[in-house]
Amino acid sequence: AFRKCRGRGIGSALVKECVRFLGKLGYEIIALVPAEPSLFGYYERLGFRTVGTVSEQTLRKGAPLPIRRLSAVEYAAQRRKYLPENGVIQEGPCLALFGGYASFYATANTVAAVTDSTVWELLGDVSEAPGLLAALGIEEAEVRTPGGGRPFAMAVGTDAPIYLGLAFD
Fold it and tell me: How confident is the model at residue 2 (pLDDT cuts 50, 70, 90)?
């Protein structure tokens, strides 16, 4: 049934209405993360611009480090310490939603949002990632950190670079 509706402008109309509605509520910048690379062109046609990148690398476990599990509220507080200057604060309902899928951890100099084999966000000292993996019993994981690598976040209302890290894409 979904395929029958493609190409009729329904999705574009919904996105445009969401942007308009959020603008009326006072939001000046609306950001999103396309679920797949092919969607960057789609959102670009709707006025969004790529404003954020992430680096992703596969890392193996190292010597275990002491870690502690964090609640969403604790993660939010710790995350603010490590966010890059252009980082988007994602707290409250956003972190609660994310916390339904991932667990939050801290080492001495990092915070991370982790599922079984993916570190969706690692902020702080990347060299501590192998020790975090070992402490969690993970042999190897994809680790996402701010900047560098691949296009990630898109926005309307700004062309300035931002870091929008927490997303299941």
Answer: low
Distance of CA 141 to the CA centre of its chain: 16
8 A C-beta contact, residue 87 and residue 55: no
Its pTM stands at: 0.85
Q: Which tens digits make up the pLDDT trace of 41-97? A: 999 999 999 999 999 999 999 999 999 999 999 999 999 999 998 898 888 888 888
